[in-house]
Amino acid sequence: KLFFTDYGNAAKVERCDMDGMNRTWIVDSKIEQPTALALDLVNKYVYWVDIYLDSVEVVDYQGRMRHTITKGRQIRHLCGLAVFESYLYTVNSDNLSILQINRYNGTDVQSLAGLDNAKEIRVYQKRTQTAVRSHACEVDPYGMPGGCSHICLLSSNYKARTCRCRTGFVLGSDGRSCK
C-alpha cells in the first residue's frame, strides 16, 4: 500500500495500491494540514503531524482506533516524522531540533539535538523493515521485473501486479510490453 496526505480542498490521509488503484480515505474529519506521515509496518498504524492543529495523531490502516498522541505548543512547527520502537522522531523547524516523542505517552517529549537545517527525518535500521516474501514484481528469467518491459507495480496484494511504461511509451495489448 501507498499512504499519503492531502490538504487541498479537503484535508485527508489516504491509501491506495502501489499502482494507484483502490484509493481510499482513511482520515477525512477533524484534520486541517497533515504534513508528515509515518508508518508502523509491524502493527499497521499510520501516524501524522497536523501543523495547523499542532497535533500528532494515529489510526490503524483502515482509519479506525484514531487518537491523539500529543497536542499543543510544545510540538508547533513540526516537519518530518519517523517511527522506531516506542518513539516518534520529528524535526522542529522553528528551533531546528530533533524531537523524540513517546508514542504511547505523548507527554514524554524530549529535544535530542540541534541541527543547522532539516525538513525531514528517517530511521534506518534493519528492524524497521518487515520480511519480504516472494512477490509479483520479482525479476523473471529474462531480467524483467514481473515480466514487465518497463515498470512493475504491485497491485491489490503481493501476488498481483500492474505493468506501466515510461513517459513516451504505450502499454501493448499483452499488458506487459511497452511500445
TrEMBL record:
InterPro entries assigned to the protein according to its UniProt record, in alphabetical order = 6-blade_b-propeller_TolB-like (IPR011042), Cueball_EGF_LRP_Nidogen (IPR050778), LDLR_classB_rpt (IPR000033)
LDL-receptor class B repeats: from-to residues: 1-43
* Any one GO cellular component localisation term in the record: plasma membrane
Q: Give any single GO term for biological process.
A: canonical Wnt signaling pathway
Q: Which Pfam families match?
A: FXa_inhibition (PF14670), Ldl_recept_b (PF00058)
One Gene Ontology molecular-function label = Wnt receptor activity
> PANTHER family per the record?
EGF-LIKE DOMAIN-CONTAINING PROTEIN, VITELLOGENIN RECEPTOR-LIKE PROTEIN-RELATED-RELATED
Q: What is this protein called?
A: LRP1B protein
Species of origin: Mesembrinibis cayennensis
* Underlying gene: Lrp1b_1
